């Protein structure tokens, strides 16, 4: 199963991505965690030390490899470059966790990520087909990755939203673009929930059959986002994630 996690900036999608990865690992899955956000942070939240993350070769810096596998220069390039042979050099493995990163933000005026995203898509598709495990992509904030088609072909799009009109509007826009890309399974997760009123707001503004559940506001979740509780959660946060994770597996079995 290939999962993409998206949402407005600041809604907590990276923390939820890491928490779901923890859940799937705990269920015995092999998980390929792809930090597809140019502002990389997923590795830190997963408990991978900063030096290892910094030293990992990112997909966006595979200049020669990308050029070779995408047909060299020019405006056109193949949409299915063969990328299976790059895995070992661009992956950090911790037991059943395999971490890859997209890379850092490009300097202003530099080229777009079209070629890199083509290789990323081919890589993720290859992993899905060959490994038959879970591939989870922590996408960049907002909708730009969808306009580039980076999330096309995923099995499930998880859209994280807070209980605010702006956040919900972004979430619904992400859904629309994902549908245009052919994503059939789209679900929402309400995050940083403090009150029953906020739950009711999300229930009234999002399709009820597409709302997987809620993550209540919790100091432990904030600490996890700072990397102080990598891969370990308890209490309410763990219960919320477990319920959502079980629902994902039930709906996509």
Short note summarizing the structure:
By secondary structure, this protein is of the alpha/beta class. It is 41% helix and 19% strand.
The low-confidence runs, each spanning 5 or more residues with pLDDT under 50, are 106-110
SS-based class: alpha/beta
Number of continuous helical runs: 10
Strand content: 15-25%
Number of strands: 8
The SSE string, one letter per element, is: EHEHHHEEHEHEHEHEHH
Shape: globular
Please compute the radius of gyration using only Cα atoms: 18 Å
Largest sheet, strands/sense/barrel: 8 strands, mixed
Strand line-up across the major sheet: 3-4-2-5-1-6-7-8
Note down, in words, how this protein is organized.
This protein is of the alpha/beta class and 253 residues long. Helices cover 41% and strands 19% of the residues. An 8-stranded mixed β-sheet has the order 3-4-2-5-1-6-7-8, sandwiched between helices. Helix 8 links the parallel strand 7 and strand 8. Helix 1 packs across helix 10 (235-251). It is globular, with a radius of gyration of 18 Å.
Fold topology:
Elements: E1 2-7, H1 13-26, E2 31-36, H2 42-45, H3 50-55, H4 63-69, E3 92-94, E4 97-101, H5 114-131, E5 134-139, H6 144-147, E6 156-161, H7 165-180, E7 185-193, H8 196-205, E8 211-216, H9 219-225, H10 235-251
Parallel strand pairs: 1-5, 1-6, 2-4, 2-5, 6-7, 7-8
Antiparallel strand pairs: 3-4
